[in-house]
Amino acid sequence: MSKVLVIIGAPGAGKGTQSRLLSEKYGYPQISTGDILREMARADTPLGKRIKETMGRGELVSDEILAEVILTRTSQPDCNDGYILDGYPRTLNQAHLLEELALKQGKQVHLARIVVSEEALFKRLTGRRACPKCGEIYNIYFRPPKVEGVCDLDGARLTQRSDDTPEAVSRRFEEYRRSTAPLIDYYQQSGRLIELNGERPVSEVFDQLCAVLDGKTNDGETLSRAPGVEIQS
Ligand SMILES: [Zn+2]
Predict the structure, then answer these.
(1) Which of 74, 93, 133, 141 is most buried when burial is the number of CB atoms within 10 A of its CB?
(2) Which residues are catalytic?
(3) Predicted TM-score of the model (pTM)
(4) Where residue 162 falls among pLDDT bands split at 50, 70, 90?
């Protein structure tokens, strides 16, 4: 059966990196709703115009439009064998809409959550610095440049993204907790959510995600069901 992989995780948990690695290995397209919305807003179609107007007003695109966008994108032939969703669903209502879509498409939804402590995420995000000249990424906690604030490769002054400041990161966490907590509860109760320790190296998290996609989810050593959830056969 073809597959839909849903990866859930707080900002900075590594969803994008893992999605890209999985996409390379399995050949499934990585579907990022943010990217698709921007792309569709540029297209001269009725849906594109609605998206453009909504985004132009600074409003969030409704769940219904988003569902239509996902349906349109995932009906492309490159999604026949499966696809990976990055950043969707984010809310309970979106999760329900996705179940309907997968059912229609005859695809099985696999759910994985990358769990990283908020403290570690805070350091990952607020410590991030980039070189505007060569694009090299540093982290003042985990991978500092040799000279503070300066790129090792070309000596350019390092910069911080505006949404990586401590205030912005706190806001992003708050938004994530508010919108996604009910979604996580729902998925945990379904007994299908596999939780992975995202503080392990990228390659180990990747191996575990591959096991989820391959359906090898009974390995008690590396994978565990959500605590406190009875697994129904
Ligand atoms: Zn540089």
Answers:
(1) 74
(2) 15, 90, 128, 161, 172
(3) 0.79
(4) confident
